[in-house]
Amino acid sequence: MASIKTYARVKPADDLYDDYETTRNRLYLRIPDSYGRDSTLYNRTRAPIVNHEFKYSQVFGTSATQEEVFNISTKNIIDGK
């Protein structure tokens, strides 16, 4: 029986949001509650933190290559497996 798999990739960036953690299949984000409303530095540092947990079949970190992501997430589909 077929199943749906989900993947996440944390891509490297110069302005990377760094208040997160990853495990093999989970992504944890900590976001100030005021984020998006009044995102001044003063309010972000004093705002309560909201924790989010997302579950995936696999999470790829910033060091994952395009080939690694492809081989794990897509290759079996293209090969018909």
From TrEMBL:
Domain called Kinesin motor: residue spans: 3-81
Single GO MF annotation: ATP binding
PROSITE patterns in the record: KINESIN_MOTOR_2 (PS50067)
Similarity annotation: Belongs to the TRAFAC class myosin-kinesin ATPase superfamily. Kinesin family.
GO BP of this protein: microtubule-based movement
Organism, as annotated: Bugula neritina
Protein name: Kinesin motor domain-containing protein
